[in-house]
Task: inverse folding
């Protein structure tokens, strides 16, 4: 089953990509790790938002 990414999902994915780009430029590994964890959270939010938006 393929789920289209909703507009809200796309916005979450854009935020995740921005966080990942910022993490790559970090010299502090702890901060970079936190950014990556946030990016993962936003990717999960994008998935959830797209499922909810598709159902609604």
Result:
């Amino acid at each position: 089953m393929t789920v289209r990414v909703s507009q809200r999902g796309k916005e979450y994915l854009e935020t995740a990509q921005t966080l990942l780009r910022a993490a790559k430029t970090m010299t502090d590994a702890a901060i970079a790790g936190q950014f990556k964890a946030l990016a993962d959270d936003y990717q999960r939010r994008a998935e959830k938002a797209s499922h909810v938006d598709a159902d609604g």
Notes: The chain has a mean pLDDT of 90.
